[in-house]
Automatic annotation (TrEMBL):
<dbReference type="InterPro" id="IPR035328">
    <property type="entry name" value="DUF3048_C"/>
</dbReference>
<protein>
    <recommendedName>
        <fullName>DUF3048 domain-containing protein</fullName>
    </recommendedName>
</protein>
<feature type="region of interest" description="Disordered">
    <location>
        <begin position="292"/>
        <end position="314"/>
    </location>
</feature>
<dbReference type="InterPro" id="IPR021416">
    <property type="entry name" value="DUF3048_N"/>
</dbReference>
<dbReference type="Pfam" id="PF17479">
    <property type="entry name" value="DUF3048_C"/>
</dbReference>
<dbReference type="InterPro" id="IPR023158">
    <property type="entry name" value="YerB-like_sf"/>
</dbReference>
<feature type="region of interest" description="Disordered">
    <location>
        <begin position="185"/>
        <end position="205"/>
    </location>
</feature>
<feature type="compositionally biased region" description="Polar residues">
    <location>
        <begin position="302"/>
        <end position="311"/>
    </location>
</feature>
<feature type="region of interest" description="Disordered">
    <location>
        <begin position="32"/>
        <end position="59"/>
    </location>
</feature>
<feature type="domain" description="DUF3048">
    <location>
        <begin position="59"/>
        <end position="179"/>
    </location>
</feature>
<dbReference type="Pfam" id="PF11258">
    <property type="entry name" value="DUF3048"/>
</dbReference>
<feature type="domain" description="DUF3048">
    <location>
        <begin position="209"/>
        <end position="323"/>
    </location>
</feature>
Amino acid sequence: MPTRPRRGLWAVLAVALCAALVAITWVVTSDGDSERSTSTSRPPPGTARSDVPSEPPAGSVPITVVKIDNVRSARPQTGLDIADVVYVEPVEGGYTRLAVVYSSELPDVAGPVRSARETDVELLAQYGNPSLVFSGAAPEIEPVLAESEVRLVRHSDYPDAFYREPGRPSPHNLYARLPLLPRVDGPGPEQVLPRGDTPPGGRPIAEHTVAYQHERYGFTWSPESRRWQVLLDGTPMTSAGAGPVSAATVVVQRVDIAANEGVRDAAGAPSPVVRTVGTGPATVLRDGRAFEGTWSRPSPEDGTQFTTGSGQPLPLAEGPVWVLLVPR
Protein backbone atom coordinates (compact mmCIF):
# COMPACT_ATOMS: atom_id res chain seq x y z
CA MET A 1 0.00 0.00 0.00
CA PRO A 2 1.43 3.47 -0.91
CA THR A 3 2.65 5.55 1.99
CA ARG A 4 0.53 8.68 2.62
CA PRO A 5 2.56 11.86 3.29
CA ARG A 6 2.27 13.04 6.85
CA ARG A 7 0.34 16.28 7.45
CA GLY A 8 3.00 17.55 9.87
CA LEU A 9 5.72 17.44 7.23
CA TRP A 10 3.60 19.40 4.72
CA ALA A 11 2.84 22.03 7.37
CA VAL A 12 6.54 22.53 8.10
CA LEU A 13 7.34 22.89 4.39
CA ALA A 14 4.51 25.41 3.89
CA VAL A 15 5.72 27.57 6.77
CA ALA A 16 9.29 27.51 5.46
CA LEU A 17 8.14 28.53 1.97
CA CYS A 18 6.10 31.48 3.29
CA ALA A 19 9.03 32.66 5.39
CA ALA A 20 11.29 32.61 2.37
CA LEU A 21 8.85 34.63 0.28
CA VAL A 22 8.62 37.46 2.81
CA ALA A 23 12.27 37.46 3.92
CA ILE A 24 13.62 40.89 4.64
CA THR A 25 17.21 41.87 3.97
CA TRP A 26 18.91 44.77 5.72
CA VAL A 27 21.55 46.61 3.74
CA VAL A 28 23.64 49.04 5.78
CA THR A 29 26.17 51.40 4.22
CA SER A 30 29.26 52.94 5.76
CA ASP A 31 27.55 56.35 5.57
CA GLY A 32 24.99 55.35 8.18
CA ASP A 33 22.18 55.03 5.63
CA SER A 34 20.15 51.84 5.68
CA GLU A 35 17.44 50.22 3.62
CA ARG A 36 15.23 47.19 3.82
CA SER A 37 14.26 45.59 0.55
CA THR A 38 11.47 43.08 0.27
CA SER A 39 10.58 40.44 -2.28
CA THR A 40 6.93 41.45 -2.12
CA SER A 41 5.80 42.29 -5.67
CA ARG A 42 3.23 44.88 -6.68
CA PRO A 43 -0.33 43.87 -5.73
CA PRO A 44 -2.46 42.45 -8.57
CA PRO A 45 -4.54 44.93 -10.58
CA GLY A 46 -7.56 46.05 -8.61
CA THR A 47 -5.97 45.67 -5.16
CA ALA A 48 -4.07 48.97 -5.16
CA ARG A 49 -5.41 52.33 -6.26
CA SER A 50 -2.02 53.17 -7.76
CA ASP A 51 -2.58 50.50 -10.43
CA VAL A 52 -5.67 52.26 -11.79
CA PRO A 53 -4.89 55.99 -11.93
CA SER A 54 -7.82 58.38 -11.93
CA GLU A 55 -8.60 60.49 -14.98
CA PRO A 56 -5.98 63.28 -15.17
CA PRO A 57 -7.27 66.87 -15.16
CA ALA A 58 -7.11 69.11 -18.22
CA GLY A 59 -3.66 70.49 -18.91
CA SER A 60 -1.93 67.48 -17.38
CA VAL A 61 1.61 66.55 -18.40
CA PRO A 62 3.66 63.35 -18.01
CA ILE A 63 5.15 63.10 -14.52
CA THR A 64 7.89 60.73 -13.37
CA VAL A 65 9.37 60.91 -9.88
CA VAL A 66 12.57 59.02 -9.00
CA LYS A 67 13.87 58.40 -5.49
CA ILE A 68 17.60 59.09 -5.75
CA ASP A 69 20.30 58.25 -3.25
CA ASN A 70 22.25 61.11 -1.70
CA VAL A 71 24.89 59.68 0.63
CA ARG A 72 28.58 60.13 -0.20
CA SER A 73 28.88 56.69 -1.82
CA ALA A 74 26.10 57.59 -4.28
CA ARG A 75 27.70 60.76 -5.68
CA PRO A 76 27.80 61.95 -8.36
CA GLN A 77 24.21 61.09 -9.21
CA THR A 78 22.86 60.82 -12.74
CA GLY A 79 19.96 62.86 -14.16
CA LEU A 80 19.88 65.75 -11.69
CA ASP A 81 20.85 68.32 -14.33
CA ILE A 82 17.50 68.18 -16.17
CA ALA A 83 15.14 67.73 -13.21
CA ASP A 84 12.17 70.08 -13.03
CA VAL A 85 11.94 69.85 -9.23
CA VAL A 86 14.24 68.28 -6.64
CA TYR A 87 12.81 67.68 -3.17
CA VAL A 88 15.31 67.13 -0.35
CA GLU A 89 13.67 64.83 2.21
CA PRO A 90 15.02 64.11 5.70
CA VAL A 91 15.39 60.39 6.36
CA GLU A 92 16.69 58.23 9.20
CA GLY A 93 19.80 59.20 11.12
CA GLY A 94 19.91 62.84 10.04
CA TYR A 95 20.61 62.12 6.36
CA THR A 96 18.61 63.14 3.29
CA ARG A 97 17.25 61.55 0.13
CA LEU A 98 16.05 63.16 -3.09
CA ALA A 99 12.64 62.90 -4.75
CA VAL A 100 13.34 64.09 -8.29
CA VAL A 101 10.47 65.21 -10.52
CA TYR A 102 10.77 64.95 -14.32
CA SER A 103 8.18 66.42 -16.67
CA SER A 104 9.51 68.72 -19.39
CA GLU A 105 12.44 66.42 -20.18
CA LEU A 106 13.25 62.82 -19.32
CA PRO A 107 16.84 61.59 -18.97
CA ASP A 108 17.85 58.28 -20.46
CA VAL A 109 19.17 57.15 -17.08
CA ALA A 110 18.62 58.30 -13.48
CA GLY A 111 20.03 57.11 -10.20
CA PRO A 112 21.23 55.63 -7.99
CA VAL A 113 17.64 54.58 -7.27
CA ARG A 114 16.71 53.92 -3.65
CA SER A 115 13.69 53.21 -1.48
CA ALA A 116 10.43 55.09 -0.98
CA ARG A 117 9.24 56.58 2.30
CA GLU A 118 5.84 57.38 3.81
CA THR A 119 6.70 61.06 3.23
CA ASP A 120 6.37 60.48 -0.53
CA VAL A 121 2.65 59.69 -0.37
CA GLU A 122 1.51 63.10 0.89
CA LEU A 123 4.24 65.05 -0.90
CA LEU A 124 3.52 63.62 -4.36
CA ALA A 125 -0.29 63.72 -4.13
CA GLN A 126 -0.14 67.30 -5.46
CA TYR A 127 1.11 65.85 -8.77
CA GLY A 128 -1.98 63.67 -9.17
CA ASN A 129 -0.98 60.11 -10.07
CA PRO A 130 2.74 60.37 -10.86
CA SER A 131 4.89 57.36 -11.59
CA LEU A 132 7.14 56.76 -8.57
CA VAL A 133 10.34 54.93 -9.47
CA PHE A 134 11.99 53.31 -6.44
CA SER A 135 13.95 50.26 -5.36
CA GLY A 136 11.63 48.98 -2.64
CA ALA A 137 10.27 49.91 0.79
CA ALA A 138 10.05 48.62 4.32
CA PRO A 139 7.20 46.08 4.67
CA GLU A 140 5.42 48.40 7.10
CA ILE A 141 5.25 51.11 4.43
CA GLU A 142 4.10 48.86 1.58
CA PRO A 143 0.37 49.09 2.52
CA VAL A 144 0.58 52.90 2.70
CA LEU A 145 2.11 53.04 -0.78
CA ALA A 146 -0.42 50.56 -2.16
CA GLU A 147 -3.32 52.70 -0.94
CA SER A 148 -1.88 55.91 -2.41
CA GLU A 149 -2.65 57.44 -5.79
CA VAL A 150 0.90 57.14 -7.14
CA ARG A 151 1.79 54.60 -9.81
CA LEU A 152 4.32 52.31 -8.13
CA VAL A 153 7.29 51.43 -10.35
CA ARG A 154 9.65 49.05 -8.58
CA HIS A 155 12.77 47.57 -10.09
CA SER A 156 11.48 44.06 -9.27
CA ASP A 157 8.45 44.68 -11.52
CA TYR A 158 10.45 46.04 -14.48
CA PRO A 159 13.80 44.19 -14.38
CA ASP A 160 14.70 45.02 -18.00
CA ALA A 161 14.53 48.76 -17.24
CA PHE A 162 17.05 48.67 -14.37
CA TYR A 163 20.72 47.75 -14.13
CA ARG A 164 23.59 47.67 -11.64
CA GLU A 165 26.52 49.96 -12.32
CA PRO A 166 29.86 48.08 -12.08
CA GLY A 167 32.42 49.67 -9.79
CA ARG A 168 29.88 51.17 -7.39
CA PRO A 169 29.10 49.54 -4.03
CA SER A 170 25.66 48.07 -3.43
CA PRO A 171 23.05 49.40 -2.73
CA HIS A 172 24.29 52.64 -4.33
CA ASN A 173 24.54 51.17 -7.83
CA LEU A 174 20.96 50.67 -9.08
CA TYR A 175 20.01 52.80 -12.10
CA ALA A 176 16.76 53.17 -14.06
CA ARG A 177 16.31 53.57 -17.81
CA LEU A 178 13.39 55.96 -17.55
CA PRO A 179 12.14 55.81 -21.20
CA LEU A 180 11.38 52.11 -20.61
CA LEU A 181 9.18 52.79 -17.59
CA PRO A 182 5.49 53.87 -17.44
CA ARG A 183 4.56 57.53 -16.98
CA VAL A 184 1.28 59.00 -15.76
CA ASP A 185 -0.13 62.43 -16.58
CA GLY A 186 -0.86 64.91 -13.81
CA PRO A 187 -0.53 68.57 -12.83
CA GLY A 188 2.80 69.94 -14.01
CA PRO A 189 5.50 71.50 -11.81
CA GLU A 190 4.38 75.02 -12.76
CA GLN A 191 0.85 74.22 -11.58
CA VAL A 192 2.04 72.67 -8.35
CA LEU A 193 4.62 75.41 -7.67
CA PRO A 194 3.31 78.62 -9.34
CA ARG A 195 5.79 80.76 -11.30
CA GLY A 196 5.81 84.48 -12.04
CA ASP A 197 7.74 87.73 -12.08
CA THR A 198 10.05 88.75 -9.27
CA PRO A 199 7.98 90.28 -6.47
CA PRO A 200 9.04 93.55 -4.83
CA GLY A 201 11.17 93.42 -1.71
CA GLY A 202 13.54 90.71 -0.62
CA ARG A 203 17.14 91.23 0.34
CA PRO A 204 20.22 90.82 -1.90
CA ILE A 205 22.06 87.61 -1.07
CA ALA A 206 25.06 85.86 -2.64
CA GLU A 207 24.94 82.56 -0.77
CA HIS A 208 22.78 80.58 1.62
CA THR A 209 23.34 77.44 3.69
CA VAL A 210 20.82 74.88 4.94
CA ALA A 211 22.01 72.40 7.56
CA TYR A 212 20.61 68.97 8.34
CA GLN A 213 22.07 66.79 11.07
CA HIS A 214 24.69 65.16 8.84
CA GLU A 215 24.59 67.19 5.61
CA ARG A 216 24.96 70.84 4.64
CA TYR A 217 23.52 72.26 1.42
CA GLY A 218 24.94 75.46 0.02
CA PHE A 219 23.55 77.73 -2.70
CA THR A 220 25.70 80.36 -4.43
CA TRP A 221 24.17 82.92 -6.78
CA SER A 222 25.72 83.24 -10.25
CA PRO A 223 24.73 86.53 -11.95
CA GLU A 224 26.10 85.22 -15.27
CA SER A 225 23.87 82.13 -15.43
CA ARG A 226 21.16 83.59 -13.17
CA ARG A 227 21.12 80.33 -11.30
CA TRP A 228 21.94 79.13 -7.81
CA GLN A 229 24.87 76.72 -7.88
CA VAL A 230 24.18 73.76 -5.57
CA LEU A 231 26.81 72.52 -3.11
CA LEU A 232 26.68 69.59 -0.72
CA ASP A 233 29.05 69.46 2.24
CA GLY A 234 31.10 72.24 0.66
CA THR A 235 31.53 70.52 -2.72
CA PRO A 236 29.62 71.51 -5.88
CA MET A 237 26.99 68.94 -6.77
CA THR A 238 27.43 67.46 -10.21
CA SER A 239 25.36 65.24 -12.45
CA ALA A 240 27.40 62.48 -14.08
CA GLY A 241 28.20 63.34 -17.67
CA ALA A 242 26.55 66.76 -17.46
CA GLY A 243 28.48 68.83 -14.90
CA PRO A 244 27.37 71.18 -12.11
CA VAL A 245 23.79 71.21 -10.83
CA SER A 246 21.96 74.52 -10.46
CA ALA A 247 18.50 75.91 -9.69
CA ALA A 248 16.53 78.98 -10.72
CA THR A 249 14.70 78.93 -7.38
CA VAL A 250 15.54 77.45 -4.00
CA VAL A 251 12.78 76.99 -1.43
CA VAL A 252 13.57 76.33 2.22
CA GLN A 253 10.26 74.96 3.49
CA ARG A 254 9.98 74.57 7.27
CA VAL A 255 7.80 71.55 8.03
CA ASP A 256 6.52 69.44 10.90
CA ILE A 257 7.99 65.96 11.29
CA ALA A 258 6.29 62.90 12.77
CA ALA A 259 8.24 59.77 13.74
CA ASN A 260 7.09 56.43 12.35
CA GLU A 261 8.14 54.30 15.32
CA GLY A 262 7.24 51.13 13.46
CA VAL A 263 9.95 51.68 10.84
CA ARG A 264 13.54 51.97 12.04
CA ASP A 265 16.95 51.74 10.45
CA ALA A 266 19.73 49.38 11.53
CA ALA A 267 20.85 51.85 14.20
CA GLY A 268 17.35 51.99 15.68
CA ALA A 269 16.46 55.49 14.40
CA PRO A 270 12.74 55.89 13.53
CA SER A 271 11.72 56.89 10.02
CA PRO A 272 10.68 60.57 9.86
CA VAL A 273 7.39 61.40 8.12
CA VAL A 274 7.30 64.92 6.66
CA ARG A 275 3.98 66.80 6.78
CA THR A 276 3.67 68.89 3.62
CA VAL A 277 -0.04 69.72 3.99
CA GLY A 278 -0.71 72.75 6.16
CA THR A 279 1.23 75.98 6.47
CA GLY A 280 4.52 77.23 7.79
CA PRO A 281 7.48 79.58 7.27
CA ALA A 282 9.51 79.51 4.07
CA THR A 283 12.48 81.26 2.54
CA VAL A 284 12.48 81.64 -1.25
CA LEU A 285 15.74 82.35 -3.08
CA ARG A 286 15.37 83.73 -6.60
CA ASP A 287 17.07 86.33 -8.80
CA GLY A 288 19.88 86.85 -6.29
CA ARG A 289 17.46 87.79 -3.51
CA ALA A 290 15.97 86.10 -0.44
CA PHE A 291 12.27 86.46 0.35
CA GLU A 292 10.88 85.51 3.74
CA GLY A 293 7.32 84.29 3.61
CA THR A 294 4.84 81.49 4.21
CA TRP A 295 3.98 78.27 2.42
CA SER A 296 0.41 76.95 2.32
CA ARG A 297 -1.17 73.73 1.07
CA PRO A 298 -4.75 73.14 2.27
CA SER A 299 -5.12 69.51 1.10
CA PRO A 300 -3.03 66.73 -0.48
CA GLU A 301 -4.55 67.46 -3.90
CA ASP A 302 -3.57 71.15 -3.78
CA GLY A 303 -0.29 72.58 -4.99
CA THR A 304 1.94 74.57 -2.66
CA GLN A 305 1.47 78.35 -2.61
CA PHE A 306 3.91 80.92 -1.26
CA THR A 307 3.18 84.41 0.04
CA THR A 308 5.31 87.24 1.37
CA GLY A 309 5.15 88.51 4.93
CA SER A 310 2.55 91.06 3.80
CA GLY A 311 0.38 88.35 2.24
CA GLN A 312 1.25 89.07 -1.40
CA PRO A 313 1.85 86.16 -3.83
CA LEU A 314 5.46 84.95 -3.89
CA PRO A 315 5.86 83.10 -7.21
CA LEU A 316 8.92 81.09 -8.15
CA ALA A 317 11.22 81.82 -11.09
CA GLU A 318 10.97 79.93 -14.37
CA GLY A 319 13.32 76.97 -14.43
CA PRO A 320 14.43 74.16 -12.11
CA VAL A 321 13.43 74.32 -8.45
CA TRP A 322 15.04 72.81 -5.37
CA VAL A 323 12.75 72.42 -2.33
CA LEU A 324 14.43 71.61 0.96
CA LEU A 325 12.03 70.16 3.53
CA VAL A 326 13.57 71.27 6.82
CA PRO A 327 12.26 70.38 10.31
CA ARG A 328 11.08 73.45 12.20
